Amino acid sequence: LARAGGALGVRVWTFDDLYADILRSAGIVITLLSDAVHTRLLRALADQAPLALYASVRTTPGFIQVLRDLIGELKAGGVFPEELLTAVAAMGNPPRLAELAQLYAAYQERLRQDGWADYAGIGWLAVEALDHRPEIAGAWPCVMVDGFDDLTTVQLRVLAGLAPRVEHLVITLT
């Protein structure tokens, strides 16, 4: 209804749209990685990394896609690279995990250095903006989240950050 123009002042967003609006409200400008740049960056980092266990597959399309998916899942779960490195070290640094954790850390460091973000990372930035900018979303009378059967840790953190700021926060699960 809102997308067809049948409601005044209603905006229909995905979580990515919500994150982008939070960042705009905070005055944060990001460069979002395209799929091609994302893949090239991961391939370059894997090629440069001192890998032993994954050396023979480091630049194959399958490994790069699995690495991309893994990083996306870790970010959606709110797992920072430093936390993963610490957890893997506590397990004795098994190479299968240590090399993946090192690639994740190198990837996130490169994004930070260059002022880039991936789709999963804009959620992190939105959480940070909400944590440090209490005025964001203060004029939003209502936020409704509908049709989800599962919310990621980052999505929950964004909703928790919005809850005290908006008059009504309604979440329906399917």
Helix content: 40-55%
Number of strands: 4
Structural class: mainly alpha
What does the largest sheet look like?
2 strands, parallel
Give Rg in angstroms. 19 Å
Mean pLDDT: 91
Strand order of the largest sheet: 1-2
Structural description of this entry:
The chain has 174 residues and is mainly alpha-helical. 55% of the residues lie in helices and 10% in strands. The protein is built from seven helices and four strands. The strands form two sheets. A two-stranded parallel sheet has the order 1-2. The longest helix has 20 residues, at 95-114. The chain is elongated. The two termini are 20 Å apart. The relative contact order is 0.15. The model has no long low-confidence stretch (mean pLDDT 91).
